[in-house]
Amino acid sequence: MNASSILFYLLAAGILVMGFLAVSSRKIFRSAIWLLFCLVGIAGLFFWMEMEFLAAVQIIVYAGGIVVLIIFSIFLTQKAGAELPRPISRRKIFSAMAAVFGFAFTYGLIRQFTFNENTSEPLKITVSEIGTKMLATGEGGYALPFEVVSILLLAAMVGCIVIAMKAPASPQKAAEKQKTIKDIQTPVLP
Amino acid sequence: MRYEQYIFLIPLLPLLAFALLGLWGKSFFRQYAGIFSTLLMAVVTVLSLYAAFNYFLVNGKAGGVYQSLIPFNYNWLNFSQGMSINMGILLDPISVMMLVVVSIVSLMVNIFSLDYMKGEERFGVYFAFLSLFSFSMFGLVLSTNIFQIYIFWELVGISSYLLIGFYFEKPSAVAAAKKAFIVTRFADLGFLIGILIVAFYGGSLDFNTLLARLGNASSPQSLSITTASFMGLSALTWSLVLVFAGGAGKSAMFPLHIWLPDAMEGPTPVSALIHAATMVVAGVFLVARLFPLYLFNGASQQVVVVIGTLSSLLAAMIACTQTDIKRILAYSTMSQIGYMMLALGVSGYVGEAGLGYSASLFHLFTHAFFKSLLFLCAGSIIHFVHSNEMKDMGGLAKMMPLTHLCFLVACLSIAGLPPFSGFFSKEEILAAAFAKHKFVYAVALFTAGLTAFYMFRLYFSVFWKNKNRLYAHRADTGPMMKVAMVSLAILTLVSGFVPFTQFVTADGKPFTSHGDLAFSIGPVAIAIFGLFIAARLYYTDNNRAEKWSQSWRFLYRTALHKFYIDEIYLFITRKIIFNGVGRPAAWIDKHLVDGFMNQLAAQTEHFSVRIKGLQSGKLQSYALYFFAGLAGLTLILLYFWK
Amino acid sequence: MSQIPLSHVLFLSTGLFFIGLYGFFTRRNMITMLMSVELILNSVNINFVAFNKWLYPQQMQGLFFSLFIITIAAAETAVAIAIIINLYRSHQSVDIEDADEMKY
Q1: What is the average pLDDT across B46-57?
Q2: Which one, of A100, A108, A104, A18, lies nearest residue C25 by Cα?
Q3: If you measure CA to CA, which chain A residue comes closest to B619?
């Protein structure tokens, strides 16, 4: 039981607890913050696993990008301090049953399986190695997925803009708007 | 033998007329429909006469016996070896004679209808139906096969239904058509069962084969049919009685006669053709066709005699009290057909013993002419007076001289006075009855007197009573009507002189019948007696008839109400069949059968309403179902899949 | 690292996965549903990295997989929020119970 293990268990507990709070909190802003902490906890876990680059990406993209985006959307759509409605009790029971059953089943399967853990010296992963691998075109290179993901990001960007765009005002609607304004502004003769 | 090749045209030309007039009668033929039908029927008549001439006088005989020729027999439906429904043409003495009768009467009715039905909107339809009837009747008499006769039997029934219900806007006509069809259909049930029994034991449906097998005491089929018995009667008796039941229905014998008086709702030429001369004698024709079998089985012949005698007496009694002229003629028809059945019932087979058979068919022959003449005259009278009731008529002798003369000729013939045709045929029937059964002879003689009485009651009431009666307007008898009536009158005069026993006999061998002068005195005397009583009561205006009906009050009322037979039938059908069988059946159908189906549908609907909630549109429910399905599949795959 | 068996890490990732699943089934607000989806995706990330570290320490596939998952999760979140905003405009509410048009 060295410090590394204790650290792991602390991190794990924190992640699980904060994840549970994120899904069960009554106030939405608090839920978002719990999510933030959970994600940071996961980043910490990645640090503990000596995957520093991934942890950094996690913090930047997830904690710094996605959670901020979620908070923006919360402000756009509702009062942040308002209390969330309770879920339907029937659904809560069934979901709890499903989650517990799923967890038990999956973990049971995992327990049965003996992993042949490789205890050889782990590779020291440096950013330069990641970068080289990412843009490599030969065996084991990730140039193609990289390009595909960039196209996906482009598509997502365009899609978001189109979906969230307000319907363009037609000239007829603009003219109607004009008319009503003029009606209001007609001077009343004394 | 060339004429045989043209026999098939005899039924087919009317069928062609039916098809053409049925399809294009209104659009193309219009007022020429009648002439078209009449011309075709004239051709058919010529062919029939030519065939009769050839058959009877030239080369029908072989070795002195009239042959049963089958120029055409098509094997239509094969059931097993030897048992098949054939469609064919059989020529023997009775079928050739019937060809002549049917074609001549049909031609006369067609000619009469040209004037009688003029102005009728459904002119083409009427002639189409007439042609359909002619086709069916020809097919019936030319049948080689008992099932073929059944098929044409039903076709004749259909034609009768269509023609009785011709004025279908009148509810009484519709009811009469239904009644006729239902009663005859019910009788045909017996006919069908009889056919099945006979076919089962005889092993064939062909007439000649059946007669040879079952009429011969030594053949194995005959042995089996006579030994197999049901409720004490042999299968042969059952089958022949049931077949006779079918014939009795079609020929309006007691107790299946109830449809014939009502059938007078149809146009009068139709009554002349169908319900006087041709369709109603189909029963007689059937018994004559199967005559060797009836002779072989004495019990069934007894049934024929009893029913025939009873019907003729009953009908004569009822006819004495009726006031509608067509009804009187209808009951008269029933009575005369009773005579024909009676004669078949007392007949033997060989030579002189077969006098009854020849007499019956001779009476059929003469009756066809004078009865259709009576109906056509009645039609002419009704056309003039616009009413059927005798009380609306009287003193027509001066106003309708030709009709009067023809009617008188026919009345004298039916009463059996020489030298008219009815005398010859009726005398032969009485001679045959006298030789066999004195009691039957006595009843037949009494009925002959009644016949003379009610026919002359009709004659005097229509033509001589109320001499100075005035009529609102006169509708003259058309020329075609006159032509038809005169032709039939001439035939009535001469047909008595045909030496019938030279042509139509039970065993095919011609013989000479001699009229016994002493014997004839009885029937003639009683006929003249009946005539005089009728003259005394009806020739002038007096109330002797009313006084008579008062003194015989009970008998008069019973006869006036047709012996309450209709009421009995109505009681049985309404109270017993409708309430006992019809209502429960309807209840079961509505509540159990329909109810079961409705419940199935209702349950399905409830179930579907419940399931509808599954598709709620809620995303998270869908996700839950998805997860549940996934978990289920995983479980199955991991643990239960072998 | 060697002291912690792989199954413990997998316990963590499985637990996080089913917590996210529970939140996805239960939460009524669309944005909180989205947050639960993020939890699920993260649990998958942990899984990949754990397998990489414990079973194949000489290789980097797990890491790269996780990188791409993070990228795609980001794109997906953006699109989802665009959809939520669109739904908010038409229904005036972000309650998932109000968006029940996916039926007959």
Answers
A1: 89
A2: A100
A3: A91
